[in-house]
Write a structure and sequence with these properties.
Largest sheet: 5 strands, mixed
Helix content: 40-55%
Distance between the termini: 33 Å
Number of helices: 21
Number of domains: 5
Radius of gyration: 37 Å
Order of helices and strands: EEHHHEEEHEHEHHHHHHHHHHHHHHHH
Structural class: alpha/beta
Strand content: 5-15%
């Protein structure tokens, strides 16, 4: 290998000698060979700082984590041609606070660029610099729709089918929850045989299981047993360690419920207006105190959870549960509706048939969901306007009606999503990959470093 060295004869020049560089072999002011540098760059792109430094130490080429990060930051951006089909989605730099935008070439399945925010102006400026974009795959976020319309008016916008199905599933679950009373099977008709007479339950202001009520009942039974055995009242007071006045009051009470007096028994509470609803929901099978509190809170109950919890524990826990199997939850019924009928197990199919026979509104919801699924799987987007008209005309399914009305705001993109073969699946995969890269660079995941790793790794 011959390398030329040049010498400057000018006395005022600070450089006296210059060495010729060989591309791919040497680098000016280089402290390591190009092969070692490329190996360290590969380790840094794969593992980032600390993990990469531990691997280089095991390989016998120890460098610090900061050196690996500097090597990654010094890399130039890869040259990428203007894509024809672009996928757009958001990613979280700090979840709930800072979000960015990732752009992916859907045809080559490679990331193109990362934007520091998810504003419409930023996306519009990026697309305006690349007039060759013909198709934009996105979700139905308004800032992406506005940015794509302003930056690439010539491009066809395609709404992602997975997001459409996910939004339909959320609307369907709300509809099922609204008709949750229909999920319990109808009670069996009573037998003709006369039922045995049962003793009427005594209405006690303090239910069974209350600690004060149980203690009072125990004292009442003990005192009356001693008196019936022939002991005097003063003798009972000495044996039980009570005052004579207490023994007299217990002896005059024929039942322990006569002793249940005090402010707790007569003081009205704000929960009284909602107790009939809580009793009804308890009989329907809802035994979760938190869920009951959330339901009456939506109806205007102004107090906290603890009052409802105490009422459930003291009063409702002692009431008998409805006899029969536990009804399916709204989420389970929604899963049955969203699943293809041929893929449902026989038991689930029978239960779904019973639920739909008991509720015509849920039967209509099932028909709407299955017709939308047929459009989505067979790419029959031209049927969407008729489906929207039918779903909007359904009065008893407000969540489905709102979903259909929301589709009209982005109708062209939704029809294209139900017609074109393009989708944002590859973009979602890169969003998950960005999450993994962020975890590797915890504490050092600046936007510039993250962008380098996403584009070059």
């Amino acid at each position: 290998l011959r390398v030329r060295r040049f010498v400057c004869s000018e006395d005022s020049c600070p450089r006296k000698t210059f060495a010729e560089q060989v591309p791919g072999l040497t680098r000016r002011f280089g402290r390591r060979t190009e092969r070692l540098r490329s190996a360290l760059v590969s380790v840094g792109l794969a593992l980032a700082g600390r993990a990469g430094a531990r691997l280089t130490d095991a390989l016998g080429a120890s460098v610090s984590r900061n050196t690996l990060l500097r090597l990654i930051a010094s890399l130039p951006d890869p040259p990428i041609a203007v894509p024809r089909v672009v996928g757009v989605d958001e990613y979280a730099q700090r979840r709930g606070r800072i979000y960015g935008t990732v752009l992916v070439d859907v045809e080559t399945r490679r990331p193109i660029d990362l934007l520091p925010d998810r504003e419409a102006d930023t996306l519009a400026a990026w697309l305006a610099e690349r007039p060759g974009v013909e198709i934009v795959c996105r979700d139905r976020a308004p800032f992406f729709a506005e940015g794509a319309t302003r930056g690439a008016p010539q491009a066809l916008q395609v709404a992602d089918r997975w997001h459409l199905w996910h939004n339909l599933g959320e609307a369907a679950e709300k509809c099922v929850y609204r008709h949750r009373g229909c999920l319990r099977p109808l009670p069996a008709p009573p037998d003709d045989e006369p039922e045995e007479e049962t003793e009427p339950a005594t209405s006690s202001p303090w239910p069974t299981g209350h600690r004060f009520a149980e203690r009072t009942r125990t004292k009442h039974a003990t005192i009356h047993a001693l008196l019936a055995a022939g002991h005097s009242k003063r003798s009972v007071a000495r044996q039980l360690g009570m005052t004579l006045n207490t023994i007299l009051r217990f002896s005059r009470a024929t039942t322990p419920e006569e002793m249940f007096t005090g402010q707790w028994q007569s003081r009205p509470t704000r929960l009284d207006a909602y107790k009939p609803y809580l009793d009804q929901r308890w009989q329907e099978g809802c035994t979760n105190a938190w869920k009951l509190w959330e339901e009456i809170k939506d109806q205007g109950y102004p107090r906290g959870y603890s009052t409802v919890r105490d009422y459930v524990n003291r009063t409702l826990r002692g009431k008998p549960q409805p006899v029969g199997p536990r009804p399916p939850s709204a989420r389970v019924v929604t899963r049955w509706i969203l699943t293809h009928p041929d893929a449902l197990p026989e038991g689930d199919r029978v239960q779904l048939k019973a639920v739909l026979a008991n509720c015509p509104e849920l039967a209509a919801l099932t028909e709407h969901v299955r017709s939308f699924a047929h459009m989505l799987t067979q790419l029959h987007g031209h049927q969407l306007p008729a489906w929207i008209d039918t779903a909007t005309a359904t009065p008893d399914l407000p969540s489905l009606r709102r979903f259909a009305q929301h589709l009209e705001r982005d109708l062209d993109a939704v029809i294209a999503g139900l017609t074109q073969p393009w989708n944002s699946g590859v973009v979602e995969g890169h969003v998950n990959r960005i999450k993994m890269l962020k975890r590797q660079m915890f504490g050092r995941a600046s936007f510039e470093l993250l962008r380098k790793r996403v584009l070059l790794a």
